[in-house]
Batch of 3 targets.
Target 1
Amino acid sequence: MGEKYYVDVVSALARQTINRLVIVIILLILLLCGTNAFWFVREQQYEVVETTTQEVTQTAEDGGTNRFVGGDYYGNDTDS
């Protein structure tokens, strides 16, 4: 017969909604992977900068005062 029950209609709509949501989730995952790959390739274009270290020694003659901070020398030798 041509009668459709409410449960059948609702379950059919639910299946369509679930199918649409699955497609949207797959699309979002693919877009996320694509944007991550784009940023990875973009970051690889930059040059790697090598860092240098500098060793500073401290003498106990001046009571342990540090005048060499961040690569700059502060004060002079006559400061007490």
Target 2
Amino acid sequence: MTNKNLGFLVKFNWEVVSDYLDRHVHAIYVGDLLIGYISIITMLGERIFTPFTADGELPEAHCASCAAQALFAKHCGLPPDAIDAVDARFESAGATETSLEKAIALLAALSVLKSKTH
């Protein structure tokens, strides 16, 4: 059996659901499907990224991209190491999105076929 990888590109959309001075919560979507939330808390100049769903919190991530990656893995029922994240730059209506939008609206390269082929 030949071991092959197949990658899929998935664009994440987000909306702010809670916005305070020291914390923000973003709802993360794939298309119209809500896959979870990312809480971003700023403490002493350091940002803490915590992905969570209705089932509870996932482990803290070191950036918004990794938090979105963890949500996507959980939603798909895949181990986190099956997902590879790549940073992408999108342009919307001629204006480049903010760095947070770039981080959350990343393209996830999904390598599902690590052990089997279709």
Target 3
Amino acid sequence: MLQAWITSPRGSLYFAAPTTAYNLETLRTHVRALRDEDATRTCVSLDIGACAEDAPAKIRALVKALMIDGIRVYVAGRTGRRHALTAARGARRLAV
């Protein structure tokens, strides 16, 4: 299960869904719709629960794409620990 909180000057959105390719693309669409002209003012917090075997790679790809766009991303995994990811620290490996 994937939970996401998107916040930006344009508004905010809570998104919860099973971690599927379709739902990850839907999440990306919502993030882009709420993204401000200054992408750094948009923040996505992800809480990743149990997911399919291929989901971690897809989640990493989504996070990488959002960071390339300049969006701030925070990730909490099964341990409950929250990690801040930014483009400057993009080299850090995301363990999901």
